[in-house]
Fold:
Amino acid sequence: MFKKLFSKIVGDSNKKLIDSLRPIVGEVAELEAQLQQLSDEALKAKTAVLRERHEAGEPLEELLPEAYALVREASVRTTGLRHYDVQIMGGVLMHRGEVVEMRTGEGKTLVATLPLFLNALTGRGVHLVTVNEYLARRDGGWMGNIFYHLGLSVACIGPQQFSALYDPDYVNPGAELEDERLVHWRPCTRQQAYQADITYGISSEFGFDYLRDNMATSKERIVQRDLHFAVIDEVDNVLIDEARTPLIISGPAPRSGQDYLRFADYVRRLRENTAEEDEDPNGHYDIDEKSRSISLTEMGIAEIEVRIPEIDHDAGDSLYDPRFFHLTYYLDNALRAQYLFKRDVHYVVQDGEVIIVDDFTGRLMPGRRYSDGLHEAIEAKEGVSVRRETVTVATITLQNYFRLYEKLAGMTGTALTDAEEFNEIYELGVAPLPTNVQDIVETGRLNLQERRDKVEGADAIVYVDPQRGEPVFFKRIDFADQVYATVGAKDQAIIREVKRIHENGRPILVGTTSVEHSEVIDRLLKSEGIPHTVLNAKMHQSEALVVAQAGRKKAVTISTNMAGRGTDILLGGNPEGLAAEMIEKQLFDRLQLTQLAVRLFEEGEEAARAQAQKSPKLAEVLVDELQRLKAKFDDALVEIERVQMIGYLARTLQAPYDLDYEQTLHVVRLVRGGMLGEARVYLDELNKDVALVDDIVRLQGEYGRYQTVHQDPKATAHFLAEMLFDIHFKARAALIRATLGGDEAEARKILDTVPGLPADMISKIKNVIAETKAEQKEVRKLGGLHVIGSERHESRRIDNQLRGRAARQGDPGSSRFFLSLEDDLMRRFGGERLKAWMSRGVLANIPEDMPLEFSVLDRIIESSQERIEGYNFDMRKNIVEYDDVMNRQRLAIYNERRAILLSESFDLAAKIDEAFATAIAELVDNYIDRYIPFVRSEIERTINDFSTDALDTINIAGVFARLRGLLPNITELDRAKMAELQPNRLTEQLLTLAYENEEKGLNIQQLLQAMGRFLPLLATVPNLGSLASRRTGQLQARDNARREYLVQVEEFYNDFLAQQIDPTQRTKIWQEAEEKLLQAFGQFSVDGLTIKNAASRQLRFRLAVDAAVRELLLTSLSTLDGDQLVAALRSYITKQQNKWRERIGEVEYQNFQRLLLLDAIDREWRDYLTAVDDLRREVGLEAVGQRDPKVQYKIRSAEMFANMRQNVERDVVDRFFRQVASHQAYVKQQEAEVTYQLKAQEAGFQVVKREQGKGVELRRDVPKVGRNDLCPCGSGKKYKHCHGSNAPTTAVSPAAQPAANRQPPSQSQPKGQPPAKKRPSRR
Structure:
C-alpha cells in the first residue's frame, strides 16, 4: 500500500527510464529509410567510417543511433528480423552496462547484436557469454551473418578447445545438410578466435582460458586479449547460479580413493536423531535443515569409533585425538554424501559417473565436481570408480572473473529479485523492460482496449481490437497457490488439475524441483492413463525437441526447472519438430537399415531386396546405395594398398581444392602428423580453402575404419549402414528446413539426390505446417499453455522463470503452484510447527485433499523464499569476500607473470640478480655477521615446534635430530638431562655449542655448505678408481686428470676469491693448497690397482682432495669481512652467468631466465593455493575464540603470501645453476628432433611410434616411385615427365622462408608451391 502511494507521489522510475530512451529510438528510426537505399557494400563501408570516427575521438554514445540503425538494417537483410523499439531500448541499456530484464520470447539474442556491434567498433574485442555450447554455436552462427554483412569478424569457442570463425562461404565437410546456423564455423586457433571482433562462448571456457593464459610459459600460448566488454545471456544463471562453483584447474593429489570407500561403508545404517533438544538422543546424527549441515550425536560418535579399526576404544582412544584428525576429513564428507546429498535430486549417475544437477536450473553440469573431497565421497557411496583426488593448480570464481571486464552487461527474463546482488557484487543496475506487447498497448499504436474479467478469483486481462471485437493479446493468469498438509495430497491434487485441464484440450507443463519428484508425477500420470512426456536431467539431450512440442493440443510435459531456457514453447507445436516426428514414423530407423545391410552382405542381394519389398519403410534403392557405397570404399582400399593412405588422399583431394599434388601431399602429411593449425596456415597463405584439413581428418577416419572392418561382412554392414543413415538423417532435416523456408527447388534437389526419400514427402511436410497453424489457433482459443508448479523453489526467480513459459509474446496462458507443508521450503522454515498447530482443534478435521487457504501460509511462503534468497546471497557474498583477498594476490601474481612473459621492457636478469643478492645477503648475515642470533632463532623455533603446550613437554629427540646439522656436537650432550630443562634454559645450553662453532670456524664451513646448494663452487673430484678397468696408460690418465682438476680449481679460486685478497697472501694460500692437492694425487698409487681395491683407494683420495679444497676456502674466507664476501659471491655468480650466456647464446639464455622465473612462480603459487584451502577450512574455528574468521584469514593469508614471494626468490636461486645445463641439453635435443623430422619428411618418411616396444621408427608415407613408374598424382604420365621432373625438397610455408630467399610465383612454380629439388634416377 505504501509503495503504491509513494509511486503516485514520486512517479514510476522505470517509466521515466523508458520515456528517456524513446528519443534515441526515434533517432534510430529516422535513419532507417536512408539506410534502406544503400547497397550491401555501402552498408559495410559505414562500419569503417564509424570506426574511423571513434578512433578520431568521437565517443561511442554519439555513434550509437547510427550504429544501431546499421545493425537493424543488416538484420532485416540477412535474417529477416527487425529490432522492435523495446529491443533498441534494451541495446541502449546494455551498452551503458545494465542488466536488462526481458521476458521469455522477447528476442534477447537479437537485442545483444546492438551493444556487441557498437562496442566492437573499438577494435578491442567483445564477448557474448551463453549458458551452453549449443546456444553459443547456434546464436553465433545465426547472428554472425549480421556482423559479417557489416564487415566484422565473429568467432565461437567451446569445450575440448573448439574454436572457429564464422564464414558463410565455408561449410563443415560432411555437414552440408545440417542446420544452417551450425555449419559455417571454420576451424581456427584459440588465439584467432579471441582476435575476432566478437567472440561467442560459455562462461566456463572464458574463465578457463583466462586461467590457462596465466599458466602459459610462452607468448604463443596466450590466447585472450584484455577483457574489454561482455554481454551475458541468462545473466542470472551465469553470475548467480553458476557463480557458486569456482572454476578450478586441478592436478593429481597424493590421497587415494580407498579411504573414501571404507568411510562410505562406516556411515551406512545410521539412524537420525528424532528426540527433542532437552531429551537424550535416540539416533546417531542430527540434520540442520536450514544450514544443510549434519553432525554426530554422542551416540553416533561412539558407534563410528567402534567401526573404525584404527581407534582402540578400550585403550581410551577417541575419534578427536590429534592422531586421528585426518580421519574426520573423510568422515564429514561421507556423512554429507550419505544423508544430505540425494541421488536424482542433487546429482545423477550416468555411465559410471556422478554428474552434478544444478539446483537452480535442473541442468546437468558435466565436468564439474564438488570440492573438498565431497565428490569423491559421493562416488564411494554410489559404488562407482572413485577418481583420484586433486589439488588446485589455478582457480578463480566466476564473480571475480567477470569483474575483470572493464564493462559488463546482461539480459535475462528474471533479474529484479536479484537486483541487490547484481548491484553489490558486480555494480550492475537492473532495468526491467516492457514486453513488445506492453509497449504497443501503452503507446496506443494499435488502439487496443483492455478488458478485465475474473477467472477462479484471478484477474484475466485481454487486449481487444475495438473494431473487430476480437482479443489480440493476452496477459497470463496467475492463479492462487494451493497448499496441502502432505506431499501425497499435493501430488493427487496435481494429477486432478492435469486431468481437468487435459480434458479441455489445453497443453500443460508440469514443473518439478528435482528428478526424483518428476518421476513420481510420471508414475501417477501413467496410472491415470494420461499420455505425457518427461524431461529431466537424465534425458537433457532431448530438451529442445521436447520443450518445443510442449505447446501442442493436449500435450502434457513434465519437466524440471530447466524447462527450455533458450527454447520457446510454441502454441500448436513447432512445425519443424512435428515434421521430423512425422518423417521418423514413416521412414526407416538406424536399426532397420542395419538389418537390411546385414542381410545384403551376409545372405546376398536377392534376400536384401526381398526384405526391402516387405517393409513399408524400406525401399530397394537403399540396397543399390549400400552396394554403391561398398564399391566406393573397396576401390579406395585398392588404391590405398597401392599408394598408401597419404598418397590416396592427396590424389583424391587435389582437384576439388584446386591444389597441386605436392601441395596436397604436404597438407596431408601435416594433418597426419597432428599439425592441423600449421596445415590451415599453409592453406591460408596459398589462398586455398582450409576446409581441406577437416576433409582429410574425416576421410582418413572413414577409410581407416573401413580397413579394419572390410573383411568381416557383419562389421562392414554396420559401418556402411551407419554411413548411409547419417546422410539420410541430415537430408531429412535439410528437406524440412527447405520446405519450411519456401525453397521448393532446394527441397526437390534433396529428394532427387538422396535415395530412399519418398516423392510425396514435400506435400506431407506442407500438410504438417498447415495442421500446426490450425492447431495453434485452436490452442489459443482453448486458453493456451497451463503451467503447474509442483513446489515452490527457494528462489522466486526460478518460479518466475517457470511461470514465464506460458503467455509468450501475448499468447494466452495461465499458471498455478501446488505446495505442501512437507516441502523442503516449508519444512526448513516452520512447516513442521505449522503442521503441529494445524493438527489440533478444529483444523485437525480438515480433509487431506482440501487445500489450505490461510493468509498466514502466504506470508510464510513469501517470507521463506526471501530468507533463503538472503541466506544464499550471504553465502555467495561470503565466498566473494574470502576470494577478494586471494583475488588481489592472484592479480599481483598474474600481472607479474604477464610482465615476465610479454613485456619487452621487463629486465629478467635484474629480477634474477635481485634474488641472488637477497640470498647472498641472507647467508652472509646468518653465518658471518649475526651467527649467534641466527642460531638462537633456529633453536627457539625448533623447541617451539617440538613442544606440547597441554603436557608442557619437549620432544628432545626431535630437537636433537633437527639441529644436528647446525650444531654437530649436540650428539655429545646428555638427552635425559636436556629433556628436564625448561625451554629458556635449554636454549642457553644449546647456544654454547654455537659459540664453539664460531671459535672453530665451523660457521664458515656451514656457510660453504649452504652456498653449495645453489652455487657451482667446485668441480667434481676425478674418479681415479675407474682406472682399474684400463689395461694400459693408467699413469698418463692420472696425470691428465690431475692437470685438468688443478686448472678447474685454480680457475674457480681466481673467479671467486682472488680479487678480494692481497696478492701476496693469495699466492701463498694457493701454493699451499696446490701442494696438498698434488700430494693427494701422488698418494693415489696405480700400482696393484684392481676393481676390488679401487673403491677404498678412491675414497681415501676424495677425502684428501676435499680436505685440501675445504682448507683453501676456509683460509681464504677467513680473511674477508661480510661486505667483501658479499662482493666476492656476487662477482662470482655474474662470471658464471656470463659463461652460460656465451655457451647457449643470448636468446636461449633469456628464454631460460624467463622459464625459470615462471616455473618458480607457478610452483610456489600452487603450493600457496593448497595452503590457503587448508587455512580456509581451519579459520572457521577462530569464531570459537571470539575472533572474526575473515579478519584472521586476511592476516594469515597476507603473511603466507609474503612468505610465498620469498620462496619464489629462493626457488630461483636454488634452481638456476642446476637447471641451466639441462636447458642447454633440452634445446639441443629439440633442434635435433626438428631437423630429424624435416629430413625424414623431405625424404617421404614419417617418424612413428613402434606398435610394439619402445622408441620410434621410420616408415614411408607413400611408396617409392621410380622414374619410369606412373606418377602417383594420377595424371597418367611417367613420374620423370610429371612430378619427378621437378621433385620438391620440402613443402615449406611461404611465411616460413626468409624474406630474402622468397621468389615471386611463376608459371612453372605456382603461387605458394614449395621449392623443388632433383631426385637421382633409380638404376
